[in-house]
Amino acid sequence: MKPNILVILIDSLKADHCYGKSKTCQTPNLDSMIKDGTYFNQAISSSDYTISGYGSIFTSLYPVNAGKKGVSYHKLFSKVPNYITHLKKHGYHTLATMDSNLLKFGFSEYFENTDLGYDRTTTGLFEGLEEQIMEKIRTVKNQEPWFYFIHLDDLHIPIRLPEQFMNKKYSERYNFVVEKVDSFLGNILKQIDLEKTLVVFTADHGDYILSADDSKKKSISNTVKSKMRQKISHKTYDYFSSIKRNSQRKIKYAVAKSSLEKRAIDTRTSQKRFLFDDLVHIPLLFFGHGISNNGIINDLVRSVDIFPTICELIEVPDTHKNIDGRSLYPVMNGEKIKELPVYLENTIFVTDQESPQPCVGIRTSKLKYFRSLDNPNDEIHLYDLVNDPLEENNIAEINIKLVNEMEQILVKIRKELDRKFEAPELSKEDEKKIEAELKKLGYI
Hints:
single chain, four-stranded antiparallel beta sheet, 34% helix
């Protein structure tokens, strides 16, 4: 019998909140899993956005031209083979629990359960989602071998918590939810047989931690806002709110004390969020069936490597051709393999701010390079990750030769990606539906 597969993906989870010196939350269950499993300390997502991140993970392909129009990256997975279908062909029952917004990208056809979607604005670990997942785990035991994909949105901006906790600042709410996720991990591990279940814990992308205090507090200001909403139309109120937000952003930008604070003002919807590690450095942990106690592995790895690794661990032939990922199984067994640079591409969508700038880049274990997608000579960034891990000092202007070398590598990768790229299949109607959902979530 093939082993079961449990993939837990936490939307917007930063790697430094799972492991490292700067960790600020208590995660005893995750710590134990890292100790007894294999944790890749330098795992990088190729995208800062869920849909393009999903596309990369489940196809083992880099996102291409997502930066041009993020809402139409793929109708998953209309033109390319994916690993969910691959597992089904090898006898796996496929189930999922995920944000219902993602179903508009075609996900529902790949999973057997009809109750896979939930509304993240009303449902999460604090509102009964954990109990729903535990019940699914209990029932799926009769459908072995199974592949169960869990996508949790509790860390997604604005991080909604029970009312009594909304007076906390964003950073405090973030830590609070990470600890809730850790508790969830402990409970779910009690429900599964680890001898015959491979567990993969990861994220689609990271996020910035807001530097401003956005806590919800009872005040005259909030009361006035509430009354305003009742007396004037949403359209009018949203217009004036947009003006105020943009004004506040400019003020905050002017007084921010460091480049790190500037990045955190508007989080992932800011114009110059770019491709810093806050957004693309993700946790990646393999645990359970077939996993030795390898502890921490510092080799540079990529989100596109996840499913080729799963296939080798469960001994299912990987017949996908021309993929960008590769199995990490040799690394888990102590072998040294050639480091491959990670291709990076941000995703943009229209917002009530100035449109974010699309950019592309590459990351190695020592360097980060990115620049404007449309103009190779604009917004050129180069960072020495060894001596400047927080990416505060752009050294591009004083390292022209190194910039040229990194650009040559990037251009070579992009040429190969363009050769393999299949245009997405989203109709105008599909795009309108997706834009409507983005408006509900506050992006537009």
